[in-house]
Write a structure and sequence with these properties.
Distance between the termini: 14 Å
CATH class of one domain: Alpha Beta
Strand order of the largest sheet: 3-5-4-9-6
Largest sheet: 5 strands, mixed
CATH architecture of one domain: Alpha-Beta Complex
Shape: globular
Radius of gyration: 25 Å
Number of helices: 10
Number of strands: 24
Length: 421
């Protein structure tokens, strides 16, 4: 396929300020903030970033610096420097964010984005020596990027956006699939509207509820602790002892970046890890204000490991990990989990794993209901796994093509037709 492409192109290098406007954020006064929708939505940092664009519930009635719809949002401060998102509307941007907009239009703003992605390490190196890097407006304006002819820029953006749009679609489908599972779990095991013998919702059809330490629950149900349903597994491995082996590595940074594991060689991994498999459910014990809950999908030919900052749950015999996964996805578990935190500062705050096993839930007298739930949800979980596989393949293709396209080593008309097909 590559042999049929046009020959490499000659690419100019320009300073970013020559082709784009860079608007550094400035936080408005705190007394102008509100959560009732008055004024302009406010972005203070990447905590509001989503798959593609932000979601915020904070507004300001006195916006300082604003971005436009279609602007590239770039984090310039702290440990998240370099994270990016797209503005889907006008926002007030705080001092941790800047907005970048190509002077020649939205397609070229995408080209700027892909150039930054391909050369992000070089951009971040401008902040070398700082524990939490900060990028200044001068750093950004003087940063040199590739800038080929307009037709070539348009073609590069078209091929890369084709891949990214498919990745985004699959990611959104997975979010929707998980929401379906969470809603069904809540309906059956929290709101007690599971189907009765006649197939009608139990509670709203007059099903009997009785008092318990967790409130009113269906008659015959029991209060069980999480430790009666799952074990915590602590089987460890030292990857460096298997230098030739490859490991599917479920790490905290990988979760925060894309919720996809990274394939590492044994020699790349410097510390002890937990062994995991397709029976595992991972919950990060680190800084629980952000719940990190991961359902691994491990193929037979992969060795999978995770950071020891995760708690590895495995359902007891006769139960599915799908049920455990949706238990730890509930708001009640999140609140309970956060209440167990030890440590005084963010970087040291952790939850003692064994303490989580005392979490209590209402459990049906007939385990058949749990089996029915898992059978109903299992196809969605499998579909989610297939989508993750496809996301991984598409991401590998994109990451392979990105530097070659941005450097001009390959051109894209033939490739574009192939990928679109």
């Amino acid at each position: 396929m590559v042999s049929n492409m046009n020959p490499p192109i000659s690419i100019n290098r320009v300073k970013l300020k020559e082709v784009a406007v860079i608007n550094m954020g400035q936080s408005p006064a705190g007394d102008t903030y509100n959560n009732v929708g008055a004024g302009t939505p406010l972005l203070n940092g990447p905590t509001e970033f989503g798959l593609s664009h932000p979601t915020t519930s904070v507004y300001t009635t006195a916006p300082t610096k604003t971005c436009r719809k279609g602007d590239l949002l770039f984090c310039v401060r702290g440990s998240t420097t370099g994270r990016m998102n797209w503005a889907d509307r006008e926002y007030c941007i705080g001092r941790g964010i800047c907005a970048i907009r190509a002077m020649s239009g939205i397609d070229d703003t995408f080209f700027v984005y892909y150039t930054i992605v391909s050369e992000l390490d070089r951009l971040l190196s401008l902040c070398a020596g700082s524990v939490f890097p900060n990028i200044s407006v001068d750093d950004l304006e003087s940063f040199e990027i590739s800038w080929p002819d307009k037709d070539d820029r348009t073609n590069v953006v078209a091929i890369l956006r084709t891949l990214d749009d498919r990745i985004l679609l699959n990611s959104q489908i997975n979010i929707n699939l998980e929401e379906i599972g969470k809603m069904l779990f809540k309906r059956w095991f929290v709101d007690f509207e599971f189907p009765n013998e006649e197939g009608k919702p139990h509670k709203s059809s007059g099903g009997v509820l009785v008092d318990s330490e967790l409130g009113r629950i269906p008659r015959g149900w029991h209060i069980k602790e999480l430790g009666e349903l799952t074990d915590i597994v602590v089987e460890t491995v030292m990857p460096q002892e298997s230098l030739e082996a490859s490991f599917l590595h479920y790490s905290i940074p990988a979760y925060d970046e894309s919720e996809r594991p990274v394939l590492n060689s044994g020699q790349e991994i410097k510390s002890m890890k937990f062994l995991i498999d397709n029976e595992s459910v991972l919950v990060s014990k680190l800084n629980p204000e952000k719940m990190r809950i991961w359902l691994p999908f491990v193929k037979e030919n992969n060795k999978a490991i995770c950071s020891t900052e995760f708690i590895v749950y495995k359902a007891k015999k006769g139960l599915s990990r799908v049920f455990i996964y949706f238990v730890v996805k509930t708001n009640k578990f999140s609140d309970f989990f956060s209440s167990l935190v030890t440590g005084s500062t963010g970087s040291r705050q952790r939850v003692p794993p064994k303490d989580t096993l005392s979490f209590k839930i209402a459990f049906p007298k007939e385990e058949l209901l749990v089996w029915q739930f898992c059978k109903t949800i299992d196809p969605l979980i499998k579909m989610r796994g297939l989508n993750l596989d496809q996301i991984g393949v598409l991401s590998q293709i994109r990451d392979l093509l990105l530097p070659k396209l941005m450097s001009g080593k390959i051109r894209v008309p033939v490739l574009q037709k192939a990928v679109e097909t």
